[in-house]
Design goal:
74% of the residues lie in helices and 10% in strands. With 137 residues, the chain is mainly alpha-helical. It has a two-stranded antiparallel ribbon.
Length: 137
């Protein structure tokens, strides 16, 4: 029984060491570090805007979506505003995990993954700004 636990712990240690090597290998590339700094800065800005919306709302319900044809068509809790920055963070994390496994094969795919994450976060910043304008303008 004792032998099984030591083998499991040894495998966990080896996998953790391999994972940390992969992460350090990724951060050795300058363009990946620049992309990640820009991505995390954009996502932090989205979190700050969502926090500002949450702080400045006087009631529990906010307008979450506006359509030109129908007007306001989604009203919900102010806490639902945090879905937008969380979605941006999930996109960054998923792309980073994919990046861990393919960064050696194709540099173009690395740029494509990181650029699409940045583009998605820019669309999310436009979405959160539109929520801000709908509620406070």
């Amino acid at each position: 029984m004792r032998m099984g636990w030591s083998k499991i712990l040894n495998n966990i240690h080896i996998k953790r060491h391999t994972f940390s090597r992969m992460v350090l290998d990724i951060f050795s590339f300058l363009y990946i570090r620049i992309y990640l700094i820009i991505l995390l800065s954009i996502n932090l800005l989205i979190w700050l805007i969502a926090f500002n919306i949450n702080k400045n709302v006087s009631q529990d319900l906010v307008f979450l979506h506006y359509n030109v044809t129908f007007g306001i068509n989604l009203i919900g809790s102010v806490k639902r505003v945090y879905i937008i920055p969380l979605l941006g963070l999930v996109i960054i994390i998923i792309n980073f995990i994919l990046l861990l496994f393919i960064h050696r094969q194709a540099k173009f795919i690395v740029h494509l993954l990181l650029f699409t994450a940045m583009l998605a976060n820019l669309f999310l910043i436009a979405a959160i700004i539109s929520i801000y304008l709908i509620n406070f303008r």
